[in-house]
Amino acid sequence: MTDLFTAPPRGQEDPAFPERRSSRSGQRRRRRSKRGRSLVVLLVALVLVGGSGFAVWTNLDSLMGISNPVESKDFPGPGGDQIDVEIPEGATGTAMGQELYDAGVVASVSAFTAAFEANADSVLIRPGTHTMLEEMPARDAVALLVKNEMAELQLTIPEGYTADQIVERAVQVTGLPAADFEAALESPAEIGVPEEADGRAEGWLFPDTYVVKPNDTAVGLLTQMVDRTKGLLNGKNVPPADWETVLTKASLVEREGLHAEDKPKIARAIENRLEDSMALQIDSAVAYGAGKPGTELTDADLDNAENPYNTYEHTGLPPGPIANPGEVSIDAALNPTAGDWKYWVTVNLDTGETKFAETYEQHQEYVQELLEWQAANS
């Protein structure tokens, strides 16, 4: 086997049982009783320390876990100077409120959270850098975030993503329609993909972080990615006639190698197999053509000669790239490490440790090492 296995999807947590809930209810009642006694003691202490107790009172909600009127204060508005605030990807309303509070946009996290929950359109808020105003009413801050008039967005494409995965990520971050990206990919010449790619944009969408402006389009963003790929290949003095081949090899290396130091060795093993007219037997290529994860491949998939990406049934390179490779994998494809390896296998699926062999017999020893690891970690 030559594919890099991936961990299975995370399972769902077990549901809570009724008897556990009743037990926890009793624990909560006991904790509230203790909390009440603690609050009385703390209030007495505040009376004794006089004015200095106000500072402690303002933090009672964090100390006692109760609502604090001081923390719910709000600015009257209309707001002051402009300020840029970064809303992280996946941020909750509370996390957004904390970012805005730290920046001086809202007077309290609780006021923002209440306004966030009261606005049904708050689910439309996208991550990125939003231009806000200092000392805004919380309700106005939520409304401005919902408008999504951002100073800039950052779209980050990881190495090894397929075109479909890139579209999914771009839609999530930019809010642009998926149909716009899909239409652009169906007209690759419109986004700058050369004729050598035979109408496929796969492999040409360079993984990087792109700044998205408010007026950017799907065509414009994908064109930037293609331009980055062509600029990189030009900078490395790769003849245009070789671009598609280099990207195909680099995509195989990208999906097969976890560690940077392994990638030039994988590239060499691929070259050695091609020179000897051996089938590449790369599971990640078969999986790409079958449209499924490599961990779900069956014997029938490996025997399916109708899949043009089946590198068990067809010798030579697949019809094109199977992913969009990063610069490290492109460099590996251009400069493979010297060696006689023809086999590689990942023997530890946690660390990604990969071992290389020159002979099939040695390779089988490493495969056995993988099987033993799987048995010990299943």
Overview of the structural elements:
The protein is about 45% helix and about 10% strand. The chain has 15 helices and six strands. The chain has three domains: about 80-150, Endolytic murein transglycosylase (Dna Ligase, domain 1), CATH 3.30.1490.480; about 155-235, Dna Ligase, domain 1; about 240-375, no CATH class. It is of the alpha+beta class and about 375 residues long. The protein has a four-stranded antiparallel beta sheet with strand order 1-2-3-4. It has a two-stranded antiparallel ribbon with strand order 5-6. The two termini are about 20 Å apart. Strand 5 (about 345-350) and strand 6 (about 355) form a beta hairpin.
Low-confidence sequence ranges: 3-70
Relative helix content = 40-55%
Strand order of the largest sheet: 1-2-3-4
What form results from the Cα inertia axes? elongated
Instruction: Tell me how many strands there are.
Output: 6
The largest pleated sheet is described as: 4 strands, antiparallel
Radius of gyration based on Cα positions: 28 Å
Gap between N and C termini: 19 Å
Specify the number of helices. 15
Order of helical and strand elements: HHHEHHEHEHHEHHHHHHEEH
> Which range does the strand content fall in?
5-15%
Task: Please indicate the count of domains.
Answer: 3
Classification by helices and strands: alpha+beta
- Overall mean pLDDT stands at 83
Oligomer: single chain
